[in-house]
Amino acid sequence: MFRRIYLDNSATTPVAPEVLDAMLPYLTEKFGNASSIHHFGQEAKGAVDKARHQVAELLNARPNEIVFTSGGTEANNLAIRGLAQANTAAGKHIITSVIEHSAVQNPCQDLESRGYEVTYLPVYENGIVRLDDIRDALREDTFLISIMTANNEIGTLQPVEEIGRLVRELRADGRKIWFHTDAVQAAGKINLDVEEIGCDLLSISAHKIYAPKGIGCLYVRRGVRLHPQNLGGHQERERRGGTEPVPNIVAFGAAAEMVKTELETSSATLATLRDKLESSICEIVPGTNVNGDREHRIPTVSNISFSSVEGEGLLINLDMQGIAVSTGAACSSGTIEPSPIIKALGSDDDRARGALRFSLGRFNTAEDVDRVLEVLPKAVETLRSLAPASRAQHT
């Protein structure tokens, strides 16, 4: 029986043992409601406060600027819709990009249905937004720029610090404009400093950094007004009603502290593994292309297209041999659609359909990479042999 290898850490990560140890007491004897004033409640409140400090330290933020949410999607919705609703006089124009996660694109589209206008910027072959395009898209009624820190599919890093400086310059001239960044894929992989970025709002999710699903946060710079999206309680300084999920919050805090402590070492190790995997695949498998910029990206992701191969078929083939990866293609009604992210790079349908994402994490090893390199070439060859159009090209 083969050993299963998990290379889909951008989708979710396993819970780290030390994170599980931190949260377990709050699933058993320390079960209090953090809003209660008795001992059990205050014990829970103390744990939430500690976690808030731990998450704030990961971002170089103040603890009272951290709003706990159910995850990155809720954080993005609170940022975009909450800002729009609380600042209606500031304008009705948003600037974002074509490669944002649907948790950003869908709230923007919802606002479009309510009379707002959204500019979706291109990213070109390297998968990176150009600052000049942002400047050109600015209007008098632009109130929000929302550009992700790192793309979830190709891992490219966007020029968030430059965008932050631009927004500060605009505000210095009296403009009412804010900057939000979805940093869900960047947390734990690169240093995130909200002061260096200069953002007003930043979203992260715990299950991308070895904590459980169902918890995340939105960083809200002091003074930024948001309209709450969850009504029914006074929690999170009136910004997000609902009983705090204390065990998950504790786990989030422990994970934030862990990834911050390990960041420099883990990033270097994972980048080395990623580069070995990527360069070896490109060397031993013909008809391969790396998608997106190879320098400006998080150290954990390699997105590679295999010509004349459906990414979905390759994913299934690898899974049958114990290797879990992912593809940006969506299977709908029996038709595999090409990845819109890869298409946004100017790639054709064949390259977009043949894209596969390998995303490494804390528990991956050199042996995992060796196993992929052992299995992958044969899997690609087999799938190509089944496609008549590719037979002449690759045999």
Give a quick set of tags describing it.
Aspartate Aminotransferase, domain 1, 15% strand, three-stranded antiparallel sheet, 2 domains, seven-stranded mixed sheet, 14 strands, alpha/beta, 395 residues, Aspartate Aminotransferase, domain 2, globular
Summary of the model, kept short:
By secondary structure, the protein is α/β, with parallel strands linked by helices. Helices cover 41% and strands 15% of the residues.
Can you give a write-up of this model?
- This protein is of the alpha/beta class and 395 residues long.
- The protein has two domains: 5-12 and 263-394, Aspartate Aminotransferase, domain 1, CATH 3.90.1150.10; 17-259, Type I PLP-dependent aspartate aminotransferase-like (Major domain) (Aspartate Aminotransferase, domain 2, 3-Layer(aba) Sandwich), CATH 3.40.640.
- Helices cover 41% and strands 15% of the residues.
- It has 13 helices and 14 strands.
- The two termini are 31 Å apart.
Topology (SSEs and partners):
Layout: E1 5-6, H1 17-23, H2 39-59, E2 66-69, H3 72-86, E3 93-97, H4 102-112, E4 117-121, H5 131-137, E5 142-146, H6 160-172, E6 178-182, H7 194-197, E7 201-205, E8 216-220, H8 246-284, E9 288-290, E10 301-306, H9 311-319, E11 323-324, E12 330-332, E13 335-337, H10 340-344, H11 349-353, E14 355-359, H12 366-385, H13 388-394
Parallel strand pairs: 1-11, 3-4, 3-5, 5-6, 6-7
Antiparallel strand pairs: 2-8, 7-8, 9-10, 10-14, 12-13
Helix pairs in contact: 1-8, 2-8, 3-4, 8-12, 9-12
